[in-house]
Amino acid sequence: MHAALTGRPVISATGLFTPPESITNEELVASFNTFVDCHNAANADAIAAGEAVALNHSSVEFIEKASGIKARHVMSKAAIIDPDTMCPRLPERGNDEISIMAEIGVAAAREALERAGRRPEDVDAVLCAASNMQRAYPAMAIEIQHALGIEGFGFDMNVACSSATFGIQTAADYIRAGNAGSVLVVSPEITSGHLNWRDRDSHFIFGDVATAVLVEDAAIAPAQHWDILGTRLKTVFSNNIRNNFGFLNRAAPETQGTADKLFVQEGRKVFKEVVPMVAQMIVDEAARLGIDPASLRRLWLHQANTGMNRLIAHRVLGHEASEDESPTVLDTYGNTSSAGSIIAFHKHNEELAAGDTGLICSFGAGYSAGTVFVRKVG
Ligand code: COA
């Protein structure tokens, strides 16, 4: 435990791991359409007899217009775009090797620690906050903690696309309560594993990445950091984004790969219901903190869909947001679940000036949403 802590949480630094491989919309659609053609040819008689429905082609134009996504990074490109496989193939590792989620989480965490000038032994806790965990136990956070050589404790938390902001509030609460001085929030998101790459409605949505956020007491933070002015979380139950995969349905091979054990959504409903909920939440939280939403220098929003971000930013700022006011990483990363707003923050905060106020905001399945208002210091 550190001496003379203030109980004031700040973001000391962030880290990012980006998989080297990336799939363009053109590559994705070519693979998907080959799969569709093969499927339709193999089922031609049943389709002609009206006993089966022909599948439709996907389109690069639709994907870009509906979502803003142009490419996505992945951990296993060849298998995903192979029309005979169309899912990641990440070989299982032995128990004496680091698991892949921990490995990419560690890479992001190391960058955050390096940027903050922090040694692992000075960190008190690790939270692994992500949409999917590779296994039930031991917790991914404990493996990451072990790999980095951190003492103290770690645990996993899953709040889908809002996992990182929920992790930041949890870390901030440890700081506020004086239970920790330095907490790593790590979000390894291998979302290619929960995406149904054969589903035309959603096959373009997700990408893989890992982020890390070092939340610390102001007393030990580096000179340049972001004060956390306030955090707020919200959940409202909805079936409109759902994934039924779980340990109780693992036994039946005939159910493996069926669509509801992967990501499914009612995209239109999500769009309509989440935009007003999140915009209102931001405005209410700004009022609570005495911040004029129109004065926010930058919004680092969850990266699911450019249309949603445009509407939310407009409602918050009172005008159409520029790329400078609400930066996008969706075009090259796709939706990276909880990591999206953190990638945007990581890539687009350094040029801001001391005193600038901004907002990190997530939203997604649950529904779940989280806001973290921050102000630059140093
Ligand atoms: N290629 C070509 N056409 C496609 C297509 C594809 N891959 N997928 C769907 N279409 C077609 C549909 O068949 C439909 O055609 P129709 O009008 O002839 O029936 C049309 O495009 C519109 O489909 P729809 O699903 O209503 O598209 P949309 O405009 O709602 O966009 C999403 C789909 C998913 C991009 C959008 O709804 C969205 O982003 N919603 C929010 C999702 C979200 O943020 N989820 C959170 C996840 S964490």
TrEMBL record:
Keywords tagged on the record: Acyltransferase, Transferase
Segments forming domain Beta-ketoacyl-[acyl-carrier-protein] synthase III C-terminal: 288-375
Pfam families given in the database record: ACP_syn_III, ACP_syn_III_C
GO aspect biological process, one term: fatty acid biosynthetic process
Molecular function via GO: 3-oxoacyl-[acyl-carrier-protein] synthase activity
InterPro entries: ACP_syn_III_C (IPR013747), ACP_syn_III_N (IPR013751), Thiolase-like (IPR016039)
The Beta-ketoacyl-[acyl-carrier-protein] synthase III N-terminal domain, residue ranges: 155-234
Protein name per UniProt: Beta-ketoacyl-ACP synthase III
Taxonomic source organism: Erythrobacter neustonensis
Top-level taxonomy: Bacteria, Pseudomonadati, Pseudomonadota, Alphaproteobacteria, Sphingomonadales
